[in-house]
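Revision sheet: structure tokens.
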Amino acid sequence: GLPQDPDLGSAEYFEAIITSMEFWDNLKNNSSIWLYTDPNYELTNPYDIANKIFFVEEKLELLYAQRWVDGFRQPWEAFCLARRTKQTPREGGPLDYFRLPYPPSESEHNTINWSAQVAKMGGDLSTVKVWWME
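Predicted:
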């Protein structure tokens, strides 16, 4: 990984906003089913928008929210982001499940290894954190 560097983080955040806007603009321009675009959209400068967002103090939360919204095409990614950060838009109580339990067939057909792993993890429950979350 990289060392924690606020300047690098700010630069990457700014670049992420521009890249996201370019992605969605390209999708709009090359989609045969895009029916409506706000008349002011074409007058919008992505760098102006990025500069307005860039000075917001909740940068990380906004980045997580954007990443979470992008996960509509990859729901397992959205779940992992919500599970890892606990800062994505959602309703209800905080997430208290971290993994999927092993299927019943695992304990039936691989009893020795299943028992050893479950004992090492502290149980075969969805509330037991996976090894990289501890």
